[in-house]
Amino acid sequence: MEDQSPKPIRCKAAVCRVAGEPLIVEEIIVDPPKAYEIRIKIVCTSLCHSDITFWRAKVATAFPRILGHEAYGVVESVGEHVEGFAAGDTVVPTFLGQCDHCPGCASEHNNLCTTVPFVFGPGMRRDGTTRFRDAHGNPLHDLVAVSSFSEYTVVDVTQVVKIDPAVPPKLACLLSCGGSTGVGAAWRVAKVQPGSSVVIFGLGSVGLAVAQGAKMCGASKIIGVDMNPDKEEVGKSFGVTHFVNPSQLGNSSVTEEIAKLTGGGADYSFECIGVSSVMTDAFTSTKPGKGKTIILGLEKDNEPISLPSLDLLSGKCVMGSYFGGLKPKTDVPTLAQKCMNKELELDGLVTHEVGLQEINTAFDLLLQGKSLRCIIWMDKDK
């Protein structure tokens, strides 16, 4: 009988061969999924600031590499022992896994799977090997075991979330990382209370998603902090009620300005930039005795954070957040439904759309501060 098992696929991918240099769209080979793995035909992907961090080789240096981790696609084939997924299912990959059985997945207060734990370094999380080769058969490294800048990719079953096919691809793509991370930080990590005050440092796509999450939770005052004056109007469309531009404060500090706006400090503060000094500002801008600071930005230069110890003793706290504290398989479909019901308005995060051949344009737009999310369509050039 004819062998019906999945075969290697030749397709196009944008490969980063040298840190910081333009990606090269070339033919690659994507191996079949192994046990507990799913091969996905990527419909669209988008560029996240975390991709820029890896592209610049600030974290987990490994080249040549296929970047990308925020995407939407269709299941092409599944490996052995995969349950609940079949060819044709519409899905999003996530950099965090959810097995539903380990202590982390079973806990209400933890979203870090220990069965297939998150690692920055390349390699599939069960065996550390790659599923990508270039046209000459040489291995290509992956990014956080997703690598969505490819027409096909292979992802562990714990990192794949089934999505209602009625959800528009662009919206589903945003929920694969940035949109979920921002909304989740307000909803699941901070647990923003109705009538509370929120300050958001950095009104990029994640910060604007935080604003939407805070609005959804009933925050009465949402302050956006950004050096770009254009973000004032953008922020308002996502729920920001007040805007602070640090470059326009004269002799006043950001912390002092926020204290004036909130009567002594914000209840919740979110750092969405990835700069240690801004993390300190976010912390000192919260209310003494009860302020919560949530760090979402990956520090660009691996610098430590400096915090006043007296503020910590007063009862303020700092919290980290992977994927907005969400459990991917449980919470992403819920957020998708909230978007479909218009409880969340994330569509405006998409400011540009290009094809795979134009992927370096997406990098240029983000680096120049001209885009929030640029959707990269795999079939746009065909």
Please describe the structure with a list of short key phrases separated by commas or semicolons.
single chain, 382 residues, alpha/beta, Quinone Oxidoreductase, Chain A, domain 1, Rossmann fold, 2 domains, seven-stranded mixed sheet, six-stranded parallel sheet, 11 helices, 17 strands, 25% helix, 23% strand
In words, what does this structure look like?
This is Enoyl reductase (ER) domain-containing protein. Helix 4 runs parallel beside helix 5. This protein has 382 residues and is α/β, with parallel strands linked by helices. Helix content is 25%, strand content 23%. It has two domains: 7-175 and 344-375, Medium-chain alcohol dehydrogenases, catalytic domain (Quinone Oxidoreductase, Chain A, domain 1, Alpha-Beta Complex), CATH 3.90.180.10; 180-322, Rossmann fold.
Strand and helix layout:
Layout: E1 9-15, E2 24-30, E3 37-46, H1 49-55, E4 70-78, E5 90-93, H2 103-106, E6 132-134, E7 139-140, E8 152-156, E9 160-162, H3 169-175, H4 178-189, E10 197-201, H5 205-217, E11 221-225, H6 231-237, E12 242-244, H7 254-262, E13 268-271, H8 276-284, E14 292-295, H9 309-313, E15 317-320, H10 328-340, E16 350-355, H11 359-367, E17 373-377
Parallel strand pairs: 10-11, 10-13, 11-12, 13-14, 14-15, 16-17
Antiparallel strand pairs: 1-2, 2-6, 3-4, 3-8, 3-17, 4-5, 5-9, 6-7
